[in-house]
Amino acid sequence: MSDRSDIEPLAVETATPVIRAWDLPPNTFWENRESRYKRKSLAIAVTLFVMTLISTLAVGAQFASSYASGQSPDFDDFFSTYATLLAHPQLLLAGVPFAFTLIGILLAHELGHFFACRYYGISASYPYFIPAPTLIGTMGAFIRIRSPIYNRKALFDVGISGPVVGFLFAIPALAIAVLSSKVVPFSDAHASIVFGQPLALRILVAILRPGVSPGDLLLHPVGRAAWVGLFATALNLLPGGQLDGGHILYAVASKYHRRISIALSLLLLPIGLFFWKGWILWSVLLLAIGFRHPPLLNQWEKLDRSRLIWTGFAILMFILCFMPMPVLVR
């Protein structure tokens, strides 16, 4: 019988095979499913785009008619116009300046988000427009983000890209319209619809049309479309929930996101009571959506200084676009 304590164990080498992603066979099931989803998403996006184009052309035709007669648009005419346009669809051509400008601004906004998602490898839908028989012919547009966002940098860039691109499209359009708009003294005095005057509009009028009061300027339909673009930018930059401003806030200071979102919802209530009732609807909408933000896969990486500077630019855009009373209907 031998003593095993002086026998060294044999070293056994094991090899773990390295499998690389490109060595694996393609998963045709998921590839085909993603392909079908993209085709369906594109079909829905195109259908909604065409419907929104028609509804904004109808509204644009009314803006063009009112502008040609030197009057502010009438509230009742917006809805009676639809019946007239159904009987005479060629009249829709008059709405091209408004419709193309507005859709261009909204599309630029959403494509800013879309290409930012593509840059970071985030799965996102095509832009979906929302047609609606409203004073502007649409309820805006949106994209669906279908995959998690990895870090703060990606979230920040996706959130801010849309408002920045839309703003950069809207300001030149508004400037061109201010230069070509009619001066109609007291044009808002007896109008049934009075549109608010964002700070950006006041600054452009002061620079480009000195001596003219913004209230006496009857905006060209292109300018009214740019006005809608600025209003949409202000709404998206509200710092709450999963709006663009909420994404920016979460990327910059995630621990304050919930508290600021709640404070915003409560603040919109008195603004809605004293200025525009629509802010009450937005308060309810933020409450319904909730204040939780989807967590990031990497929450510990901080933003760099350049993105903190862009945060200041986002705040500036909000100040230039925000209106306590965007629309007054008499």
List keywords for this structure.
330 residues; two-stranded antiparallel ribbon
Give the beta-strand count.
6
Q: Could you list the spans in which at least 5 consecutive residues all have pLDDT below 50?
A: 1-16, 18-22
Q: What characterizes the major β-sheet?
A: 2 strands, antiparallel
Strand content: 5-15%
Mean pLDDT, all residues:
86
Would you list the SSEs in sequence order as H and E? Answer: HHHEEHEEHEHHHHHE
Shape: globular
Query: Structurally, how many domains make up the residues?
Result: 1
- The DSSP helix count reads 10
How far apart the termini lie comes to: 109 Å
What does the model show?
By secondary structure, the protein is mainly alpha-helical. The protein has one domain (32-329). The protein contains ten helices and six strands; from the N terminus they run H-H-H-E-E-H-E-E-H-E-H-H-H-H-H-E. The strands form three sheets. A two-stranded antiparallel ribbon has the order 1-2. Helix 4 (152-180) packs across helix 5 (199-208). Mean pLDDT is 86; it is low at 1-16 and 18-22.
